[in-house]
């Protein structure tokens, strides 16, 4: 498969995921008809790519073709963790990951040009440009004066997770108390459905991927619903960036189950209109999600240190 | 409806003991008990993350806080010495600190136990806490250090790193050790007497429990004792590994299909950034992938080779399971995890029972030992390659791992504890 074909397939997989996001948000169930035109309008594309994306979903038995044309939903979208992109990652996606990985390991600096990255990765100019544009869309890189690009090292540094928690503690509880906050009832219902499914799972069989999807959708819902476009933009951008750049935190299943319960409690207070309570619960949830382990531990190691200088 | 029985677990302030207890507590929970953790203040949050209630003891001695830089410098110097030299520079002062902790913890621990009213107490430590012996409920001792912690005429002296056969080196170490720890031992015995407990023999700070003692000592490394331990009160655990989150391997810039080597010296061992940098410099030319635990010092590593990935915290068992070789410090938890997953160990010890496990690994053919500092690039490369190429050792480890997994150590431990209630 040549690079262009891979890239097109990759775009279709992305669109297929978008279709799943739409049907999840609308709270659709197994067996419901998927209207092509409505999907095309929601996804801002024509019907042709929608058909290709639906074909990908049909190949993976997520939808089934109707004899007289069109497709039916063959799964319960609330329990579906998300599509795996089985296509080889497009060159730009590989480059995207390699740039972040190498910056994090100190193998490249944070200031780069297209030419310098071409040399490092032996890649075409367009592939490097596309990777940089994707980094820029995720708020991980920005154009600097001249030919330079500045990759945001702080977003992937050793203390990025701690700083992100600090930022979220300041903003997310506040977002819940803004006067313009609007409840999106259908999105809440659909999220609750996924969370209920997670709640029914045991520690050993816990679906981490489904949790990751609901976790992202939950925090994005708060960001989008807050009613203040500036706050909304900042939080949406932050959640997207942390999903694409932060290293995994390696949390065990018990904590994820607990986190799912906390999400449900916050949603419940939002539905009841108890926004101050929802805000307090969000503060607790974010603090509990920040694991603080001892830096140094061992026999005879004192529990408290004084740092001089 | 009957309330679940509370079992209070009190591991010492080290990751090895703490995480070993987590494995047993997970199993206790599945048997319907209510495990709770009593922990040192710095460990707040570690057990809650696994879903266990935790009760930190108040910060002890905070008025005399230790200087961070001074602590690191002192320890780094001591870690370069032989076990015999460390008796004076490290073991003696560490026992002093341990006895201080036990004395300071006594009153808050007594109050906490009165509040928790546990049906049993599980102590994973190297020193006695009289409040536990006096609590009026069965208590369990976990020996999660090397088996050498329980003395016997046929077992090398604890912390000596001596070979399995008795010799003048055993005697020399034992004499020097007894002398160095004597002041701490005297203070401990005086403290025990104040609390109404019997004095311990010279060099011993913790008695065996009259109820149950659990030894984290797999069959493959066990010693033949002159005086076997009483099987009614002593249970050997052939592997005791906790349930952890999966660890998806990171994408490496090169060598994507090469053997994976995990390097972790625990949080204390990660302090020596320059030593680990020197190792990484050697790894750069080797045809393998390396995951290196650098603890909280990640930002001190300016440039990392393509085949090396730095980590600060990760679910270690899930990485060991995927590794072909584990380079570690000989901490008993790391050593047992390597055995549990059939992975050879290259041990570079720097303190405590790491010396004993390093020697034992070499003696019984489950790994190799090299000095943490006295190695050349060629020595390190040869050790790694020879362990990866040793098919006989790998088969031995695979067979042993199978037995360890079948023996379900955490389940055996949890059942033995529940049977006491």
From TrEMBL, chain A:
Residues 9-76 form the HTH gntR-type domain. It holds the Pfam family FCD. One of its GO terms (molecular function) is DNA binding. Keywords: DNA-binding, Transcription, Transcription regulation. InterPro entries: GntR_C (IPR011711), TF_FadR/GntR_C (IPR008920), Tscrpt_reg_HTH_GntR (IPR000524), WH-like_DNA-bd_sf (IPR036388), WH_DNA-bd_sf (IPR036390). The keyword Chaperone does not apply. This is HTH gntR-type domain-containing protein.
Automatic annotation (TrEMBL), chain B:
SUPFAM superfamilies: UDP-Glycosyltransferase/glycogen phosphorylase. It comes from the Bacteria. One of its GO terms (biological process) is antibiotic biosynthetic process. Coiled coil: none annotated. Gene3D superfamilies: Glycogen Phosphorylase B. The keyword Cell cycle does not apply. Pfam families: EryCIII-like_C. InterPro entries: EryCIII-like_C, Glycosyltransferase_28, UDP_glucos_trans. One of its GO terms (molecular function) is hexosyltransferase activity. This is Glycosyl transferase family 1. The lineage of its organism: Bacteria, Pseudomonadati, Pseudomonadota, Alphaproteobacteria, Hyphomicrobiales.
């Amino acid at each position: 498969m040549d690079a262009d074909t891979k890239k097109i397939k990759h775009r279709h997989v992305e669109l297929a995921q978008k279709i799943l996001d739409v049907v999840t948000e609308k709270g659709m169930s197994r067996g419901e008809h998927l209207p092509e035109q409505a999907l095309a309008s929601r996804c801002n594309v024509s019907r042709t790519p929608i058909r290709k994306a639906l074909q990908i979903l049909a190949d993976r038995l997520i939808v089934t073709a109707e004899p007289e044309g069109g497709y039916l939903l063959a799964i319960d979208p609330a329990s579906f963790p998300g599509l795996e992109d089985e296509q080889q990652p497009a060159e730009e996606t590989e480059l995207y990951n390699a740039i972040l990985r190498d910056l994090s390991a100190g193998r490249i600096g944070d200031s780069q040009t297209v030419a310098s990255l071409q040399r490092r990765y032996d890649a075409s100019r367009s592939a490097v440009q596309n990777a940089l544009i994707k980094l820029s869309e995720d708020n991980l890189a920005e154009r600097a004066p001249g030919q330079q690009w500045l990759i945001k090292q702080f977003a992937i540094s050793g203390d990025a997770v701690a700083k992100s928690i600090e930022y979220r503690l300041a903003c997310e509880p506040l977002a819940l108390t803004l006067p313009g906050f609007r409840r999106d009832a259908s999105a809440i219902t659909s999220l609750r459905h996924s969370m209920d499914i997670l709640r029914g799972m045991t520690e050993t069989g816990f679906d981490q991927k489904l949790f990751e999807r609901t976790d992202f959708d939950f925090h994005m819902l708060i960001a989008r619903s807050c009613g203040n476009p500036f706050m909304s933009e900042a939080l949406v951008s932050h959640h997207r960036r942390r999903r694409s750049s932060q290293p995994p935190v390696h949390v065990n299943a018990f904590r994820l189950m607990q986190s799912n319960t906390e999400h449900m409690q916050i949603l419940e207070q939002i539905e009841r209109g108890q926004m101050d309570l929802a805000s307090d619960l969000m503060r607790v949830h974010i603090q509990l999600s920040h694991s603080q382990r001892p830096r140094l531990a061992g026999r005879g190691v004192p529990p408290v240190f004084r740092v001089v200088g | 409806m009957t309330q679940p029985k509370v079992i209070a677990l009190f591991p010492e302030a080290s990751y090895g003991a703490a995480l070993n207890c987590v494995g047993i507590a997970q199993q206790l929970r599945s048997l319907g008990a209510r495990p709770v953790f009593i922990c040192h203040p710095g460990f707040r949050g570690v057990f809650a993350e696994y879903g266990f209630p935790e009760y930190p003891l108040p910060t002890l001695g905070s008025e005399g806080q230790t200087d961070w830089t001074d602590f690191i410098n002192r320890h780094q110097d001591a870690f370069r010495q032989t076990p015999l030299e460390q008796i004076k520079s490290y073991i003696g002062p560490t026992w002093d600190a341990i006895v201080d902790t036990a004395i300071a913890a006594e009153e808050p621990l007594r109050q906490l136990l009165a509040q928790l009213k546990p049906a049993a107490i599980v102590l994973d430590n190297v020193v006695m806490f009289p409040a536990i012996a006096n609590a009026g409920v069965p208590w369990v001792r976990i020996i999660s250090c090397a088996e050498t912690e329980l003395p016997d005429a046929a077992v090398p002296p604890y912390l000596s790193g001596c070979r399995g056969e008795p010799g003048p080196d055993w005697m020399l170490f034992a004499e020097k050790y007894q002398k160095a720890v004597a002041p701490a031992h005297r203070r401990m015995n005086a403290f025990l007497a104040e609390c109404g407990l019997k004095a311990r023999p010279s060099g011993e700070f913790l008695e065996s429990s009259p109820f149950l003692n659990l030894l984290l000592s797999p069959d493959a490394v066990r010693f033949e004792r002159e005086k076997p331990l009483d099987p009614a009160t002593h249970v050997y655990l052939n592997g005791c590994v906790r349930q952890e989150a999966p660890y998806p391997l990171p994408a490496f810039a090169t060598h994507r299909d090469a053997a994976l080597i995990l390097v972790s010296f625990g949080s204390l061992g990660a302090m020596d950034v320059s030593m680990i940098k020197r190792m990484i410099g050697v790894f750069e030319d080797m045809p393998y992938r390396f995951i290196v635990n650098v603890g909280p010092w990640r930002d001190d590593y300016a440039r990392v080779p393509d085949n090396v990935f730095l980590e600060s915290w990760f679910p270690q068992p899930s990485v060991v399971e995927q590794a072909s070789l584990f380079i570690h410090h000989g901490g008993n938890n790391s050593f047992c995890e390597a055995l549990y997953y059939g992975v050879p160990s290259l041990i570079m010890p720097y303190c405590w029972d790491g010396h004993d496990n390093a020697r034992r690994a070499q003696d019984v053919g489950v790994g190799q030992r090299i000095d943490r500092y006295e190695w050349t690039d060629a020595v390190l490369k040869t050790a790694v390659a020879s362990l990866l190429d040793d098919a006989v050792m790998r088969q031995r480890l695979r067979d042993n791992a199978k037995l360890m997994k079948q023996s379900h150590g955490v389940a055996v431990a949890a059942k033995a504890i529940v049977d006491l209630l």
